[in-house]
Amino acid sequence: xxxxxxxxxxxxxxxLEQFRxxxxxxxxxxxxxxxxxxxxxxxxxxxxxPTLMEDFHFREKMTHxxxxxxxxxxxxxxxxxxxxxxxVYENMQQFTRAKFLHNPSKxxxxxxxxxxxxGSRGSADTVRDVRGFATKFYTExxxxxxVANNMPIFFIQDAIxxxxxVHSIKPEPDNEIPQxxxxxxxxxxFVANNQETAHMMMxxxxxxxxxxxxxxxxxxxxxxxxxxxEAGKAHFVKFHWKPKLGVHSLVWDEAQKIAGEDPDFHRRDxxxxxxxxxxxxxxxxxxxxxEEDEFMFDFDILDATKLWPEEDVPVQIIGKMVLNRNxxxxxxxxxxxxxxxxxVVPGIDFTNDPLLQGRLFSYIDTQLIxxxxxxxxxxxxxxxxxxIHNNQRDGYHRQTINIGKVSxxxxxxxxxxxxxxxxxxxxxxxxxxxxxGRVVQARSDSFKDHFTQATLFWNSMTPIEKQHIIDAxxxxxxxxxxxxxxQQVVDMFAHVSLELTTAFAEHIxxxxxxxxxxxxxKSSPALSQENTIxxxxxxxxxxxxxxxYDDNEVNYVLGALKSAGIQPExxxxxxxxxxxxxxxxxxxxxxxxxxxxxxxxxVYMVKGSSVSPKFNKKSAYFIDQAFNHYKPIGATGEGKExxxxxxxxxxxxxxxxxxxSDFAQEFIDAIAAIRFWDRQIV
Length: 682
What we know:
Layout: H1 11-17, H2 56-66, E1 79-88, E2 108-116, E3 131-139, E4 142-149, H3 162-169, H4 185-193, H5 198-204, E5 219-220, E6 225-228, E7 234-243, H6 252-261, H7 265-275, E8 281-290, E9 316-326, H8 330-335, E10 348-349, H9 354-370, H10 452-459, H11 463-478, H12 483-493, H13 498-505, E11 540-545, H14 551-563, E12 567-572, E13 576-579, E14 585-588, E15 590-591, E16 602-607, H15 613-628, E17 633-635, H16 640-646, E18 654-656, H17 660-673
Parallel strand pairs: 11-12, 11-16, 12-15, 16-17, 17-18
Antiparallel strand pairs: 1-2, 1-9, 2-3, 3-4, 5-7, 6-7, 6-10, 7-8, 8-9, 13-14
Helix pairs in contact: 3-4, 4-12, 5-10, 11-13, 12-13, 14-17
């Protein structure tokens, strides 16, 4: 058994290797291995005659094509993923039996899928939405799935309401409009009539709903789980993924434009950075509460619409995850991967969170129809890296060839094997929670406070973050046609903050509320993205440049940017190469016809001695957009002319200096600052 369960970082890659096929340089065959001599023309009776049904190659090829699509996920349909490993920092044995959390020298293979919730597979990446953050750990004790989101809470408290919520936020059934958007009547009607959504809607209206990158967003397990140690002692636990690059977002206008410029923006960002060796890193944190402290808080710790404020329950960082390999085939891996919060290992167990309890049924149920039967665990991406031994047989797409007569327990013909394993042998043992009470369809009174933490979130925001939330409410509710629904939403959120509702009510044609408000004054600085890590690593810079640039100056700045981990991309009038005044050459990555400033984190204006009027006009628009999105802008040489003409000189985050080394450092510092909210937008 010990040899069978020797798992390391490369275990999953080694297992997948047997399924990889490289067709390059090979001869074409049918699915039966028969070599094919013709793949351009079907078999006909005469060159202008009818196609013959005996053309088995045509039939096989067309039949496979006709059946290539599988049902997309009802939610989280739009996703992208990568392989990597997880490594714990310290032995967590005092809290949990889970072996992958014991040995700091051990690397556990992982597969992580990021996603949006609402849109279809063909929707854009940068829509306002919750992001999924699902991690499959291929551990020595079997697969463990941490199925998380980039927000720590959810819209509803009980899973029985999940179909209602999803129906409301999906495109409206009469015309299937709008796609991948929460800005419509049915969602806000649901919100107003299900006020447990208040806290989550504050998060959805915040910058958290439009992340800059999958690499720059948090992940939260949402639910309260249990750690159980070897002695059977349990603790309540919440899981956190914290990105090493900090938590950063787009601005709304930028997000909308990117959806048109590059709807694959997030997946392209993840793929490209892994290909370049800029491996995304996340640290795993846990919040832990003793069982005896379950009722000491002013909220119910099992309520999925509530978070545990980090100032009250600190996050303990216990490990890191590195994503270091892209997928080989998006369908076989990203689309066919099946996550399930019920996939746990010894030492991790469930609680009575009613939303979690429902997910434990729903996830496996939906995989059955999406992946065509009960054997989806045998697909390469879903296989554990340890052997599977049980009495389950047959079903669609069965791949295992089980030998022997026996497929039942108990038995004597096979010595009563496969036999259950005791806890000492690694067998999973459910936590023996004492449960008593009447069978009812009801909700605990401790779940009934829907506004306190919504106000806590509002109180924790900086002025610019509050303004973004106000603008989001104005936009979203401005798309709602029903005046009754708009009025109900104003009345509802008056309980969260009069400052908030007064700021957006008149913009949507509703009189500001005259009563309401909240007495909650508590805040949680950990909730503000302005308190996140800010580093220049992997940020992209658009370098606007033409022939005749100052070689020494430009080469020095580009070298300094790269040394700081920043990624400059050259943009000029034409693809190919451009030449400096001293004869050096630069490869052009883009033209202004193929990219826009919204696709970059900063802009470096260089210009050159040869600039056409058309390029000048496009460059002026490019820099104007970057300025209006509060991004860092730098200029040297002739590039300063664009800054001066546009009236940006002296504005925060606009860097110009005659000293090249000073300029480079100031520009790098500006890029690390990310945004300049105190900029005066004209």
